[in-house]
Write a structure and sequence with these properties.
Elements lengths: L3 H4 L4 E5 L5 E5 H21 L11 E4 L7 E5 L11 E6 H6 L4 E3 L17 E7 H4 L3 E5 L10 E4 L7 E6 L20 E5 L1
Antiparallel strand pairs: 1-2, 3-5, 4-5, 4-7, 6-11, 7-10, 8-9, 8-11
Length: 193
Amino acid sequence: MRSSRQRTGDQRISLVDVSGQRGELTVRKIRRMRTRLLALLTAALLAVGVGLADPTPALAADGGDCSANSFCLYQWMDLGAPVAGKRWQSSLQNIYNHSGHCLSIPPATWANGDNVSDNSGSLEWYFDRDLWGSAAIAVYNWTGCNPGGGSFYISNNNPGPISGGAIFNLSDYYYPQTSISLYHTITSISVTF
């Protein structure tokens, strides 16, 4: 007949440590130590900023202008959107951290559920020239920053420590390689030095 201790899974393991002392560990204690160790390791990784996945895609953002050191797309021309104040935004650091310094927009969606890729009417960028002044920002017609469908580099001629700009009507601009309008064709973005 088993003792109640064995029925509850509290099996004992006899141990002898290096000093010759005898002790007992239960399976339950070992599992508890393992759980605590994993929790401690996870907390340490998060505390030093190590992500457990790839850099995030970008996200929908509310109201106002494009945040500092960011690139933004708007569903409509003139920085407009069907849901007032909504835009798609990614930090330049997020774009740069992706493989090949390229962020493919799919599967991001607008606040109304429409896809962001191939569905933007205007764009805006804003950054600190000391941090990103020598960076080149480009938009692409194809995912993966593949220039085969066309690429368009955004010029940055604004003087001063803060730089930025906007293209209010993407139908006025074309990929020079293909003569295709940027209107509703942007699917990836790169940030390079």
